[in-house]
Amino acid sequence: MQSGGDYSNGFHGEVEKQLPGLSSFGRAKRRSRGVAHDPRGGLTNGVRVSDQLGEQKPLETQKSPPPCTDFDVAYFHSYAHVGIHEEMIKDRARTETYKEAIMQHQSFIQGKVVVDVGCGTGILSIFCAQAGAKRVYAVDASDIAVQANEVVKANGLSDKVIVLHGRVEDVEIDEEVDVIISEWMGYMLLYESMLGSVITARDRWLKPGGLILPSHATLYMAPVSHPDRYSHSIDFWRNVYGIDMSAMMQLAKQCAFEEPSVESISGENVLTWPEVVKHIDCQTVKIQELDSVTARYKFKSMMRAPMHGFGFWFDVEFSEPASSPAKTTSATSVDGGSSSMSPSREGNQKKRSNPSDALVLSTSPEAPPTHWQQTIVYFYDPIDVEQDQVIEGSVTLSQSKENRRFMNIHLEYSSAGRSFVKESAMEVVKANGLSDKVIVLHGRVEDVEIDEEVDVIISEWMGYMLLYESMLGSVITARDRWLKPGGLILPSHATLYMAPVSHPERYSHSIDFWRNVYGIDMSAMMQLAKQCAFEEPSVESISGENVLTWPEVIKHIDCQTVKIQELDSVTARYKFKSMMRAPMHGFGFWFDVEFSDPAS
Prior knowledge:
This protein is an alpha+beta fold. It has 14 helices and 21 strands.
């Protein structure tokens, strides 16, 4: 496919990328709802829903729900981790806007039946109960539903909030509902396909004229310029401690920009007014519409600058069923493509100046930051654009056939992709005129051949806690294969230490936070929070003030004499005497390495 227009700089092509599992983003996972257990029984405060409601006429039988795939199970399981929910609740713009939306629509909620799709910790369900809901069904397929049920009990709302542990597609609610509320939005709005569950709930249970919060959603895109990001990731390699490493730049581009990046940009990074990629009316949207979304765009740059890619963000609107998208104060003409990035915006929690204005939550670059940030699809190489230059083409967002929770992104831009690892190392040597001295061997130390003895071995082999990753074994192998007697090893020695530590700030941030969340007692979350926060060693920075005693040596290593077998298991006894009165939260580990002559 070719782009829809010709560019003065010769840009012409396409790019196809995938927004994959969030672990590849290197950040906390976002959007998922735990492993689905018995979908018919669930938690429901100890009994099935039909038992709680008494004998009621069941709704019309629905067609068979889609099967729960292995991808779904993994997705649900990731949301049993408390850190994701902590991140979302601590996003004040998100949580406070939802709370305000509930209170602004209290007349629709009071005395009515509500379903919360993907309830997580149950905070939105409790907000609805506080607004006077007659009954709230809190549905979640994640094991977080166990804690949600305890949170409901702790707040004395078991008579109003019924936690259902299972998928929306599987659980049974034997009555129609007046309101559906859900925080379904993922990165780039549609990533992770949570909207499909909202549509399913709507089609199964919502009364005609019922309320859906949020009611509308709009995804935007615009060209962006981000020279600081490019310089930090790419230009860094031009000169590294006086060494020309520009041969690394192509690989750096591939690694930095091969996947969409979730990060925060500002309005200054945006080159044009944004265009609408997709506008969604939650009352009418069909699941089939989410399979693939295609939009043509035509931008006119407002400045001369390097264009580094496209940015995506979204708004969601909370309006009554009869409200029109045109009434929103954040987008003057949603279908016409005008911007939610208006200079007059007063933040992402847009207050209503009169009853006809809708409340809007925005993730725009000009709005206060949210945990969604913005999603940037970077080019491998920037494109120089002139002021008033037209940039046009199309974008397609489609669900992955292998995993519907992944999203493929197709843009009219292209760049060849291949592995550069071996070539890049060689090219760095060449660029510095050292090919006669530096010989790059591509392979394991255990496999490559060197037909002479060596005088020096140097390696930065240390991992977290010194021994994590066991790179020292390769140094020992190199020593035993090639090092001359009396040869030098750098570093020569290493020592691992441990000591008791006190870290009340860390504990308070991760655990005590749950004692009171927007006036809700969520202390039932604390045990899970402890498990999730502390089940694995944490790599972080502490200061000397956090250390309660002088450290003890766990292991001292002489790289000239250490044997590989010594690394299989290291045991040390310790005895500490605290130097202060303080809460002890755990043990800290750190290491030193020493660079000395063989005889030292």
